[in-house]
Amino acid sequence: MGLVLLALGQLATVHLLGLTRWRGGGMGMYSEPHPNLTVVSIVVDGRREVVEAWRCERLPSPACLRETLSAYPHAEAVEVRRPSFELSSRTLRHVRVGHVER
Amino acid sequence: MSSASLRWPERVAVGVPLGACAAEWGEGPWGSVGLFAITVGLAAIPRGFGAIAIWVLVGFLSHPLAFANHHVVAGWLCLSLALADDDPGARRSLYAAMMGMATLQKLLSPSFVSGAFVGWMGLTGEWLRPVWTLNPGWRETVALNEARVAAAGLDPVVLVAPPGTTAWALGFAWTVLVVEGLLVALALRGHRAFLPLAALFVGVLPLVRYEPVFAAVLAALTALCAPRGRARWALLVWGAGCAGLAAVR
Question: Is the dihedral of CA B63, B66, B72, B78 positive or negative?
Fold first, then answer.
C-alpha cells in the first residue's frame, strides 16, 4: 500500500510539475528517455550554452531554473530540453519543457 | 505472523544484490565497504533488513531526485522482509504493486505507448545490445545514428531506420505491457504460472537492457516469491551473478 501511495504521488508530480518518471520512487524507469539525456542550457547573446544542472534535468521547476540562472550572471535565460522521438518521421527533437528569463 | 525466517545462506544471497546497490551509493572504496558490510551483516543479523530499509528511507528523503528506482525497490524489499520475514505471499504482493505501477507508468507515457521510446532505444543501440552487436546490418544502423545524434546537438535529426521499424517498435512496446500486466495478475492470484513467467522475465531482462544491479534486485525479489526449493535458489544465484556482473563492469 505504501509503495502504491508513494508511486501515485510521484505520478501526480510527473504530470503536474514535469518530474522525470525515472525518479521519485514511482517505478517509471524505461517508460521515457533517461533524465541524463535532458539538456539544461543558458542563453547568452542569443546563443545556447549547455550547463550542468542535474536537479533541473530531473525536475525543471521555476525555482530550480531561477537558481541556475542566478549562478550565471551573464546569461539572459535558462531552459530545459528533453529528447522526443517521433516514430513516423524518425525525427529526434529536443523539446523545451522549462524556461526562465532574467 | 505465520512467516518463517530466512536462513543465513539465503540472507547472504539476498544481501549480494543489496550490497551491489550500496556499492552504487558509495564513492570509490566506500562502495566495496558497503557491499561487504551489507552482505556479511545480513548473514550475522537476521533482522538487518529493517536497518537497511531505514537507511534507504533516509537516503531517499534526503536526495529524492538522485535516488534511482531500483534502489527504491531494494528498500521496499528490505522493509517487506523486516515486517514479514520469509513469506512468499507478501513478496508476491510487493511484486504485484511494483510491477503494477511500472505498467501504469508506461501506459500513461505517450512516448512508450506510441512505440517511439522503444524505437528510439532500438535505433540508437540502447536496447538488445547483445543481439544487435551480432547483426552487422543493425550494428551499422546504430553507428550511423550515434554519429547523427552527436553531430546534431540540440537540432532536430532524422535517424536511419530499416523498413518495419514502426511495427517492430509498437509490437515490442505492447508485448512489454502485456507481459507486465500478466505478471501483476498472476502475482495477485498466486497462480502457479507466475513464477515461471517472472523467472523468464528477469532472465531475459539483462539481454534487453544491460542493468545488472536492477536485474539482481528483481531476481532476489522474484526468488523470495517462491517457496524454498531449487527454483528459489536458481533465482538467488542468478541475482548474485547479475550483481557480480555489475562489479566486473
Answer: negative
